[in-house]
Write a structure and sequence with these properties.
Layout (H helix, E strand, L loop, with lengths): L4 H8 L6 H8 L5 H16 L2 E5 L1 E4 L28 H13 L4 E4 L9 H14 L4 E4 L2 H11 L3 H11 L1 E3 L10 H7 L6 H13 L4 E7 L5 H18 L2 E8 L15 H14 L5 E2 L3 H4 L1 H7 L6 E4 L20 H10 L3 E4 L11
Parallel strand pairs: 1-9, 1-10, 2-3, 3-4, 4-5, 6-7, 7-8
Helix pairs in contact: 2-10, 2-11, 3-11, 4-5, 5-7, 6-9, 11-13
The structure holds ligand V47 and iron/sulfur cluster.
The site of iron/sulfur cluster (SF4) has 12 residues, from loops.
């Protein structure tokens, strides 16, 4: 089916798409390449030829987690021999490795450990920041921040303020999954709900912290629930303007309690990228996370509305444990080649989307 001309006219005139229009574009009956073409036009208006990448490294201090979400292959119960908690030395060594590799960012997320106190998480940020002050620490999902409020008895605002004073630079967008309560009841019933996730980000934005947002798609959710998720993010962004990037995350079923589900087709990932670009008219950046999409599809996503490939990465566990077949890391050279081959101009950014000039 072809795209309705009213939707095409709305996008070309810069008019916001309704939820109903978004649902139409996500329908498998609509040609995904046409949706991509529209998203590409919307991207071009916002970002021109620029595609961003950064130099970063991941740190997951523990995989022991209270919540044990059904889609998570990474987490372990307390007492499971496959569970781990990194020592202070191992954590600092990761900071050193990042600095020596020329990284500008450490991406830090992990489990909500049932026995670790608030001070342990705070200490991770403080020690890394004190030892490597020029490294940007992008840390903790809203679910973890919510967990910190539960174990410390502090408010979201107080927790975030303590982390900012310790050296937190920004927050990643994980833990959002699908906001709809029926879906959360099925896949992650125990952790922070949608309102709490949004409240953490609203508070972070008020305190001047920039954050990202994600959506985990391709499991039990419907088209309507995906669009509802995007609309809620768009509404919060209207109020705060604090989101930098949206990252659609393709579900990887291996080693999870949902391993009976099959990974979705790459073309549907491209459609999801495109619809994200079209619906989230107030987000500056749509990230094609190559770890999750695969390197080839992430490059293709640059023609479907994405303007950011994320980074060099290394030591990513959450998606690899769930069967993602992408490499552990990509060199700067490879990232730049992928972008140039896609007909775009690579720009190294820092965690706040400022251009990094290495000359
Ligand atoms: O919160 C967990 C998701 C997220 C699986 O903000 C899974 O720049 C797929 O949020 N299959 C963590 N996804 C990753 C994340 C992220 C990654 C890169 C950049 C940014 C950013 C954020 O991964 C989790 C969860 O939503 N996840 N298990 C799985 N089996
Ligand atoms: Fe814990 Fe996050 Fe995995 Fe859920 S997705 S079990 S909160 S580590």
């Amino acid at each position: 089916m072809m795209i309705r001309s009213d939707i095409r006219d709305n996008v070309m005139a810069g008019r916001r798409l309704s939820a109903e229009e978004g649902e139409f574009l996500l329908s498998p009956l609509v040609d995904p390449h046409e949706v991509g073409e529209l998203a590409d036009a919307a991207r071009e208006k916002k970002n021109g030829p620029t595609v961003y990448y950064n130099l970063n490294l991941h740190l997951n201090p523990t995989n022991v987690c209270l919540y044990r979400c059904k889609f998570c292959a990474y987490s372990r119960d307390l007492g499971d021999p496959r569970g781990y908690v990194m020592s202070d030395e191992e954590i600092l060594a990761r900071g050193r490795e990042a600095t020596e590799a020329g990284c500008t960012e450490l991406h830090i997320v992990g489990g909500a450990h049932p026995e670790k106190p608030f001070e342990w998480y705070l200490g991770i940020i403080r020690r890394l920041h004190d030892s490597f002050p020029s490294l940007h620490l992008k840390a903790w999902t809203a679910v973890e921040i919510d967990h910190f409020t539960r174990i410390s008895g502090r408010s979201i605002k107080d927790v975030l303020q303590e982390f900012i004073e310790a050296g937190l630079g920004s927050m990643p967008g994980g833990g959002a999954e699908i906001f709809d309560p029926e879906v959360r009841r099925k896949i992650c019933p125990r952790k922070a709900d949608a309102d709490r996730w949004l409240e953490v980000h609203r508070t972070a934005h008020r305190l001047g912290l920039r954050t990202n947002a994600t959506m985990l798609y391709g499991h039990v959710e419907t088209v309507r629930q995906r669009i509802d998720h995007l609309v809620r993010l768009r509404e919060l962004q209207d109020g705060t303007g604090g989101f930098q990037a949206f990252v659609p995350l393709k579900f990887h079923p291996a080693n999870t309690l949902m391993s009976h589900l099959r990974p979705g087709a790459a073309i549907e990932d491209l459609r999801m990228t495109a619809v994200s670009r079209l619906m989230l008219d107030n987000f500056d950046h749509i990230k094609a996370y190559w770890i999750s999409l695969g390197v080839g599809p992430a490059q293709a996503a640059l023609a479907y509305g994405a303007d950011d490939l994320d980074g060099t990465v290394r030591h990513e566990r959450i998606h690899h444990d769930a069967g993602a077949a992408s490499p552990d890391t990509l060199s700067v050279d490879r990232l730049c080649r992928l972008i140039v081959e896609a007909g775009r101009e690579p720009v190294e950014r820092d965690s706040l989307y400022r251009r990094v000039d290495r000359k």
